[in-house]
Amino acid sequence: NRSLEWLGSERNEVRRMTALRVIEVLCSSNLVSLYSYVPKIFTSLSNPLRDQRSDMRTTAASTLGACLGLVPMSERNVRNPWLNFLFEELQRDYQMNSVEGYHGALLIAQELLLHGGMYMQSHFGQVCEMALRLKDHRDSVVHKTSIALLPVLARYSPQEFTRVSAGSSESMLGRACNYLITLSRATDQTRDRAAAFVALGSISQFCSTEFRSFLEPTTRAIRDALMQRAKMRIASAEADETVAAVLQTIATLAAAMGPALTRYMRDILDLMFAAGLSQALCDSLLVLEREVSQLQPAIHGRLLDVVSIILVNVPFRSKQQSMDELEQRMGTMSMHYAATPNGYRANTQSAATASLSNGREQQSDSTLLVTKAASSIPVTTDMLVLALRTLRMFDFSEENLSEFVRNAILQYLSHSSSAVRKEAIYAVSHIVMADPLYRSMAGAGVEVASEVVQRLVSTAVIDLDSDVRLTAVQMLEKGTNFDFHMGKAQNIQDLFLLLNDEVFAVRLTVLGVIGRLANMNPAHVMPSLRRMVVQLLTELEFARSNREREECIQLLMVLVRAAENWVRPYVGDIFRKILPRIDDAPAQLASKLLNTVAELARVGGSDLVDHLDQLLASIMHALGDTSNSAKRMSALKALNSCASFCGMVIEPYVEYPQLFSILAEILKSSQSDSEMRLEVMRTMGALGAIDPHRFKDAAGVTSSSSGGSSNPAAAPSGAAGAGVALQSQGGLRGSNPARKDKKK
User: Fold this and answer.
1) Which of 25, 374, 571, 723 sits at 20 to 30 Å (Cα–Cα) from 260?
2) In sequence order, which residues have a C-beta less than 8 Å from that of residue 573 and are 6 or more positions away?
3) Could you give the CA distance from residue 291 to residue 302 in angstroms, rounded to a whole number?
């Protein structure tokens, strides 16, 4: 009500804009209680849609679209009065013959097309004529809005958009595309060219078959725009905006036309690199590579040249098997990447044809255009980050990048900028992990993979930035194929140093890596790992704060998961340290303790049988805590693991007859929490089915001993029903013999 009040009578523009934003957010949340306010909102938006400020009109249109989402489009009797009201507002705005009126009419038409369902089908031709009539308006806002409306019309009804009407010799598609192509080639209207290119790409996406006749003139306009940008020494902001729109249009055309675009791209591909490396170029090339696979080798070759020039000032040297083998036998490093820092840039800019630094290959004109554009790019920190990010955005597994990784990328692991070091870690990890050449334990890629792993480990240990250290350790965690290299004694020794890192996330991640390496090199891992277990148990016992206890528990849980075969002898000791602290711990710490119990039960199995009585009492205490759902979930997981791996079946129902009622209550009260319901059903299946008569006897004994007046007769049928239903899941399992003997 306050927002509607501000919107209707308030003259303060800040309050009006705030009211529009608030109403938009509320309507976007699809609250049912707002349904009764829809007529008031529609009425209140009339004035903002005719406001003198263009941003106010645009925000009002966005609010109108969010409000239309509340209108039930399937009920014609309800929607038509409101949509008729909006269309009358559209006509009234259009007849005002003012900039505000024209802009408001176009905005209302756009929202009705996007959110009005099939209502606009009968008004489609009228809106098309309005958009074409206003496309040449002198006001830039009206002009751009009419251009932006054309793809919306093509999306709404492609059949009507491409159909030739009775009184016209040309379809709406032809009239719109001819105008947009002409506008995109007009060099005197730089600001409108970007909007024209984007509109052409969007129309091709919705009318792909009929757009084929306009594909050639569209690609000519694209080539002219890129060629114009290539001739500029210093590009303006409008030129860069146009190039970004052109690259976006190329990606949209590739998605719409597919391989049909191949023959038009041969002259355009090199010109795409004329503006230098950018995120827009990479995004466009990703789509182009995916949709037009014939261009993949050419795209990869040009990208590697550009990235190599940015990183090491020389083009990328393609795969040369004979030279690689010769250099490998001689034990020398390739001299291709040993050029002087500015030599190649100077030669490329001064000569029309340049040779590579080794003098064995001659560049073609297309490669010269790409390398010349790359040589003129100023090498800044942001450009280095983008070049390294490009290496992990594309799959270069078809190329031999061994020398490039060694001599071009690894050096940036010691760059002064932490952003560059972090991106270099991502790049080198992606290259080595994606190529099968580096996964084998013998062959040409072994030395490169070993050097990469060693540099990553060194970076994780000595880097001053915690984010860089964490990134390096995370890449080591993902590189499971390189445990052969990480399992070396020196690397293991360096990884153990990281267990003293100041950042807990680094310690947690590296402990998982070390636990995994226990299977690769147990002789070097296990002695230190045993000391680590003892140290964690000591810290858990004498920790002064709950935070320190939580960290110890998380480290123990990661260690148990990663090296379960080697930690199994210590499961009993860990369990005895954890068990007494479950009942008195805060909810968050108790949840982590119970999660650790679940992992210990999975690894230890029968080793925990002697402690199950005390554990079951702690689990029942946690299940009874209705104030914390995370704690109850952890208790369910612990109970499920103990039943599945320790043989604790059926007996929990006998010792605690109220357990079934608690599980049934959780199942009923967690209607919106599917994960909780699923865990309850897993637990009930793991506990197995109990004889109803035995359950009744146990419930009666418990009731008489406690002096209560509970009715045990109601539970057996439920327990029996649950047993019958769950026999297919967990089967009818017997109780644990060890536990029976103990009770006897």
Assistant:
1) 374
2) 533, 537
3) 18
What is the distance between the alpha carbons of residues 551 and 544, in angstroms, rounded to a whole number? 12
| CB 381 within 8 Å of CB 420 | yes
The whole-model pTM stands at: 0.77
Q: Which amino acid is at 465?
A: D
Q: Tell me the pLDDT of the chain averaged across its residues.
A: 81
Contact between 512 and 561 under an 8 Å Cβ cutoff? The reply is: yes
* For residue 325, pLDDT beyond 70: no
CB-CB contact of 612 with 654 (8 Å): no
The partner residues of 355 in beta bridges, in order of sequence, read: 362
Q: Residue 702: what pLDDT?
A: 58
Alpha carbon distance 82, 70 (integer Å): 12
- The predicted pLDDT at position 721 comes to 38
Contact 585, 559 (CB under 8 A): no
Cα gap 46→356, rounded to integer Å: 66
pLDDT score, position 5: 79
Question: Per mean pLDDT, which range of 247-261, 387-401, 603-617 is the poorest?
Answer: 603-617
- Nearest-CA neighbor of 699 among 719, 727, 724? 719
More confident residue, 91 or 726: 91
pLDDT at 450: 87
Examine the pLDDT at 386 and tell me if it is beyond 90: yes
Q: What is the pLDDT of residues 522-554, one digit of tens each?
A: 889 988 888 888 888 888 888 888 888 899 989
Q: In this structure, which amino acid lies at residue 599?
A: E
Q: Where are the alpha helices (DSSP H) in 157-212?
A: 158-162, 172-184, 190-206
Is the backbone of residue 691 left (phi > 0), alpha (psi -120 to 50) or beta? beta
Least Cα distance to 568 among 608, 525, 621, 532 occurs for 608
Q: Are 337 and 404 in contact (CB under 8 A)?
A: yes
Reported residue count of the chain is 744
Q: 355 phi and psi, to 5 degrees?
A: -100, 160
For 171-196, what is each residue's pLDDT tens digit?
A: 899 999 999 999 998 876 666 888 99
Burial class (CB in 10 A: 0-12, 13-18, 19+), 531: exposed
Q: How far apart are the first and last CA of the chain?
A: 72
Q: Between vectors from CA 524 to CA 519 and to CA 527, what angle results, nearest 5°?
A: 100
User: Is there a contact between 482 and 518 (Cβ–Cβ < 8 Å)?
Assistant: no
| Residue 133: φ, ψ to 5° | -70, -30
Question: What H or E segment, with its residue span, contains residue 674?
Answer: helix 674-687
Per-residue confidence at 720, pLDDT binned at 50, 70, 90? Answer: very low
- Cβ burial of 461 (10 Å; 0-12, 13-18, 19+) is middle
Tokens linked to 101: 């009126």
Phi, psi angles (nearest 5°) of residue 64: -60, -40
Q: What is the model's pLDDT at position 361?
A: 39
Nearest Cα to Cα of residue 469 among 418, 521, 427, 401: 418
What gap in Å lies between CA 181 and CA 213, rounded to an integer?
A: 12
Whole-angstrom Cα distance, residue 447 to residue 428? Answer: 14
What angle do helix axes 279-291 and 237-257 make, rounded to 10 degrees? Answer: 10
> By the 8 A CB rule, do 566 and 575 touch?
no
Dist. CA 600–CA 516, nearest whole Å: 17
- State how far the Cα of 20 lies from the Cα of 8, in Å rounded to an integer: 11
Q: How far is CA 607 from CA 284, 574, 688, in A?
A: 59, 12, 21
Amino acid at 165: S
How does pLDDT run across 31-76, given as a tens digit for each residue? 667 777 888 888 888 888 988 889 999 999 999 998 888 877 667 7
Separation of alpha carbons 278 and 245, rounded Å: 13
